[in-house]
Give the backbone structure.
Amino acid sequence: MAPMITTHTSASPAALPRIAVLATGGTIAGSAADAAQTSGYQAGVVGVDRLLAAVPALSQVARIEAEQVASIDSKDLDVALWTTLGGRIAELAAREDIDGIVVTHGTDTLEETAYALHLTVKTDKPVVLTAAMRPSSALSADGPLNLLGAVTVAGSRAARGQGVLVAFNNRIHCARDVAKTSTYAVDAFHSPEIGALGWVQDGRVEFQRAALRPHTSATPFVVGASWPAVEVVASYAGASRTAVDALVAAGVRGIVVAGTGNGSIHATIQAALGEARAGGVAVVRASRVGSGHVMRNGAAPDDALGFVSAGTLNPYKARVLLMLALAAGESAPAALQQIFDTY
């Protein structure tokens, strides 16, 4: 574990870090007709200029340049936006006058975008994602404070080399570990197994540990124009093989199964997945539980059928890693298992 690192923002305007803010929409840019309304709003309709104007304190922590990359509800995110974001972040990170990058995002798929960037951006400059659970029009909207926290983290020297981060509700999370854990609470993001990396409050940034697994410049993965087709299926009582058979017929390259418990799979689905693997489709076992890890099950079914354990990755992050691994030309079960054990 790395020693505790703390920084505090207190500088003249000319000495403030320059932070690029890339807006993509989401609830943080949402609006409703009634200030008491925190659901049923329209996401992604407030432009980045208005988001920044709502937080005058930003001028005390950074010099900001902003651009609108997308204006979507993140439930509708597609991998093309990952390609766009990855490319733009690379361009900004290459500029000597940019000290860090913030991405405003919707909460629904934030953890997937964060992990995709964590594995692919090639910079040690801070890249920080943030979001909100309440639209900008709501009473006690959480977006402004989350944005202030994210910009503060992105401008902190302590955040350099930490990989892609998520700043939310005063906590700083590693992109690999974080997950959305509530449908409504403003404290909606946690790192279930090992906790947050640190915290940000009132201009102070403190890291109490560092990310241990390789990320950003230490990975072989890159954002490409195309992403291999990988889908997620679930195991549950009375499950059929219909979904697996349909996906194989559609030509998917990989399937992640959200298994019960320790990634266990209903016998009917397991038989279908075994046939899929025999036909060249990569199969990864994850868990639908929400925390914990999936142990490799030795002879049955992993060794016998060529399945891969997702370890501590949830099914949706496992999908991200499998897509990148397949895009890098890895498809053998042993090679894929090594990748999942490493990243």
Summary: Confidence is low (pLDDT under 50) at residues 1-8.
